[in-house]
Known about the structure:
It is a single chain. By secondary structure, the chain is an alpha+beta fold. The protein is 24% helix and 35% strand. The protein has two helices and six strands, in the order βαββββαβ. The chain has helices spanning 21-40, 86-93, and strands at 2-11, 44-49, 55-58, 62-65, 73-83, 105-110. It has a four-stranded antiparallel β-sheet with strand order 2-5-1-6.
Amino acid sequence: MEEYLILMRLDLLTKEAQPSPEQLQVYMQWYQDWVGSIAARNQFVGGKGLSTEGRVLKPGQLMTDGPFVEIKESLAGFITIKAKDFDDAVAIAKECPILKGDGNSVEVRKVVSVRT
């Protein structure tokens, strides 16, 4: 099994796009059920949510506040999973409840080792 990163992006900026507290509870339950199903198959490695604060660094020592570039979609969190191949990882990512939201997206990236 190899490790893959599932990056979850959604609109964290537009006030109208934010769920009500009741909707958020439903979404979190869907997310927990999804992660639980991955863990039940012994394919869950870990994951974290991300705050809305951050800094964007660009060449020339340019730095801006916020993790947001020129798009509304922001990186909201990630999980790391074990999968037998890229297709297996994508199949798991396709079940991510984030994809139920308009404009949201999920990106799958294979984790590779970097030698130091």
